[in-house]
């Protein structure tokens, strides 16, 4: 695991733009089942780190897709992706190509496990202090607090003057510190009706473990890939053919043959012929 982790350090977004990282990850081609099996076999039998690198790089987009499902926690997207990448590397190291499943189906559980652990470790600190200034106030407030319970107006003024902050900042941090840690799950006494009144727990943001996330991720990415191929193929058509295909097949409001015939001052039969030819060219280009 350590060798793979060291060799793949660049797959984890550092201080750069997370958007640029995502764009780079999505530009890496996905592997066919045959290529994936070949690489996994090389890694499993010979500890081939080059094979491990290709497996990991081609699956970075899956980590991003899964990490987006945890945006409700208020944690940095780059951190969620980084933790997910750790899970991906662990999965690649342990993947047995002879089991008969695709890597994404095996890796999704390791990716989610790492992200879950990160969320649990950081839930409380996110709610108490989210900026450097708030963390400084938090620790100073604990040191200056003379008694349990709420501050009086006089004490609030004293702390604010001492720390060089506003009364509002002191009162807000005092409120946060006085709250108990939020339970990760609702108690057995809580039901859906109480949750509807604003009683939420972090566990409610987690994805449904009963859903087949691996399949949905793979389907979504293949759909993106198909859409990209279609867009590329459309560019090869002339403008009139592009317009016919879009208005007849792709737009939400479809046009009839007669509407297009009136638009281009040709017969409806001619529009049908152009449509048929354009579909044939698209099929040939995408194949």
Distance between the termini: 39 Å
Q: Which architecture of the largest domain per CATH?
A: Up-down Bundle
> What is the mean predicted local confidence, pLDDT?
75
**Strand element count:** 0
Q: How many structurally independent domains?
A: 3
Number of distinct helices: 15
Helix content: 55-70%
Strand content: under 5%
Taking all Cα atoms into account, the compactness measure Rg is 27 Å
Structural class: mainly alpha
Which class of the largest domain in CATH terms?
Mainly Alpha
CATH fold name of the largest domain: Four Helix Bundle (Hemerythrin (Met), subunit A)
Q: Per the principal axes of the C-alpha atoms, what is the gross shape?
A: flat
Q: Low-confidence spans: pLDDT under 50, at least 5 residues? A: 6-15, 190-200
Please trace the helix and strand order, writing H or E for each element: HHHHHHHHHHHHHHH
Largest sheet data: none
